[in-house]
Amino acid sequence: MRILITNDDGINAPGLAVLKEIATEIAGDAGEVWTVAPAFEQSGVGHTISYSSPFMVSELGARTFAAEGSPADCVLAAIHDVMSDHPPDLVLSGVNRGNNSAENVLYSGTIGAAMEAALQDLPAIAMSQYLGPENWNAPDMFEAARVHGADVVRRLLERVQGADHPYRLFYNVNFPPVPAAAVAGITAAPQGKRPATGFSVEPQLSPAGRRFLWIKGGDQRRATAKGSDADVNLKGFISVTPMRADLTAHDDLDKLADLLS
């Protein structure tokens, strides 16, 4: 199996090294792990692509490339250039430093890379490590992902092989903010929404007196609806959420049709 790994935290991020360990275990002795990751941090860029400007891809070592673009750019570069002679069998994105549960999904470059892989008709899994008091200052904040990641991927491999919809499924996996031994299990969960939580801005004056705005995140400890991703994560479970790039509100189509008729 040929596996492509990427992320949004950048080529030197410790979570990418964890993902390479996971991918190497899955690929096996006869497989290959290729890395095409952003040359610098691309957190929060979502599914951005560099449509209006070119970007450079540099070879850093064997099967290791840095792209001066977004995570989705990295997937495109890998499929159509770096690995064009033999595209990957599986795309893994992460392991993100911080959760991509609930509303974070909409901003995440980690998710954006997996989404682009699915749009290119490739099986894809995004993985993120929730952070909290129990693992923030731990010797290995990625321990839950490191220990349980390969097992999660193996469980999903049968599901990610088939495409039964115009928009192919991809999977969003979030590891809970606890040590590996404290992980309570793995469960399927829908995307949630943290109440009264979202991004905002905070103004700040520079030493030169110029006014800048910092993007400010919300409280990541707020639980979402019972059984949804952030809720189960905060209860110690690994969440797996099936996703598609189809943004249609299917539950509203019939009502809208009636109104328009």
Description:
With 261 residues, the protein is an alpha/beta fold. The chain has one domain: Stationary-phase Survival Protein Sure Homolog, Chain: A. The protein has 6 helices and 11 strands. The chain is globular, with a radius of gyration of 19 Å. The model has no long low-confidence stretch (mean pLDDT 96). It is found in: Cytoplasm. Its cofactor is a divalent metal cation.
Tell me the span between the first and last alpha carbons. Answer: 51 Å
Number of strands: 11
CATH H-level superfamily title: Survival protein SurE-like phosphatase/nucleotidase
Described by the principal axes of the CA atoms, the overall outline is globular
How many helices? The count is: 6
Q: What radius of gyration results from the CA coordinates?
A: 19 Å
Name the beta content range. 15-25%
What low-confidence regions span 5 or more consecutive residues with pLDDT below 50? none
Q: State the secondary-structure class.
A: alpha/beta
Mean pLDDT: 96
Biggest pleated sheet: 9 strands, mixed
What would you say the CATH architecture is?
3-Layer(aba) Sandwich
CATH topology: Stationary-phase Survival Protein Sure Homolog, Chain: A
| Overall helicity | 25-40%
Q: What is the number of independent domains?
A: 1
Q: How are strands sequenced across the largest beta sheet?
A: 3-4-2-1-5-6-7-11-8
Order of helices and strands: EHEEEHEHEHEEEEHEH
CATH class: Alpha Beta
